[in-house]
Amino acid sequence: WDVFISVVKSTVDWYRSISGQEVIYLPQPYPANFASEHQRPLAQKRPHLLVAGITQRHNIKQGHTIAAALQQKFPGYTIVVPKVAEYDYNYSKLSGTKYQVLPFEPWQQHLETLAQTTLVINTDYTQTRGRVQTDCAAVGTVSLGGNSDAQVDLFPDLVSQPDTPTEQLIEAGARLLSDQTYYHTVAKQASRRLQLYDYAPSAERLGTLVDKTRDFIDRNKV
C-alpha cells in the first residue's frame, strides 16, 4: 500500500486511476507568516492592475482584455504585465492602453511588488497550485480569476473557469476597485484562510499522514 501526494486537487481522481494507489491531497506548504510581513493596506497600494501569466497559455490574454476594460472605467490605473525573458509575449489586447512591462523579479522582491499592487488578474487555467494567489493573500492584495487550488481556497468568490464570461470578471473587478469595504473583506478573508498553508499546520498534516500510513503497514504485516 502506497501513498501518493498529488500536485493539484482536481487531479486526485486521475492520479488514483492511473496509479492504482491511494492518493492524498495536501495543501501546498507556504511561509505565510514570513510573507505576510510584506502586507500593505489598500491605502498604501499603487493604482496598478497586474495581469499574471504567460500569454502562450490558453486564456491568459482574457486577463489583458479585463484589465483594458477596467482601465477604461478607472483611467487612473496602470496595467502591469510581468515578463519572463525566456518567453515571447503577445500584448495585442493591450493596444491603446497604458501599460508597463515588469521584468522577472526574485520572489521576495516580487512579494513587495504584489504588496504595492491594487488588483491582480489571473486567468490561468493550467491546473496549478496557485503560487500567485498565495502571495496575494499574504500581502493583502486581491486576486481575480483562475481556478488554481489557492484561488479556490483563498478567494472563493472570485474563482473563474475557462468558460466564465469576460464581462462577469470585468464587473467583479469594477466592484473591487470601487467598493473599498468589499475589497477589505475579500483581502482579510484570504489572509485568514492562508494560515492553513503555513509551515506548522502543513507539518502537522504530513505527520498525521505518516502516522496513519505506519499504522496501516503495521496492521497488515505478514
List keywords for this structure.
222 residues, alpha/beta, 5-stranded parallel β-sheet, two-stranded parallel ribbon, 9 helices, 7 strands, globular
Tell me what the structure shows.
This protein has 222 residues and is of the alpha/beta class. Helix content is 45%, strand content 14%. It has helices at 12-19, 32-35, 60-73, 107-115, 131-139, 149-154, 166-178, 180-194, 199-219; strands at residues 3-5, 22-24, 46-51, 78-83, 99-103, 117-121, 142-144. The strands form 2 sheets. A 5-stranded parallel β-sheet has the order 5-4-3-6-7, sandwiched between helices. The chain has a two-stranded parallel ribbon with strand order 1-2. Helix 3 packs across helix 7, helix 4 crosses helix 5 and helix 5 (131-139) crosses helix 8 (180-194). The chain is globular. The two termini are 13 Å apart.
Task: Please outline the helices and strands.
Elements (H helix, E strand, L loop, with lengths): L2 E3 L6 H8 L2 E3 L7 H4 L10 E6 L8 H14 L4 E6 L15 E5 L3 H9 L1 E5 L9 H9 L2 E3 L4 H6 L11 H13 L1 H15 L4 H21 L3
Parallel strand pairs: 1-2, 3-4, 3-6, 4-5, 6-7
Largest sheet: 5 strands, parallel
Q: Which segments are poorly predicted (pLDDT under 50) over 5 or more consecutive residues?
A: none
- The H-and-E topology, N to C, reads as EHEHEHEEHEHEHHHH
Instruction: Report the principal-axis shape.
Output: globular
In percent, how helical is the residue content? 40-55%
- How confident overall, as mean pLDDT? 92
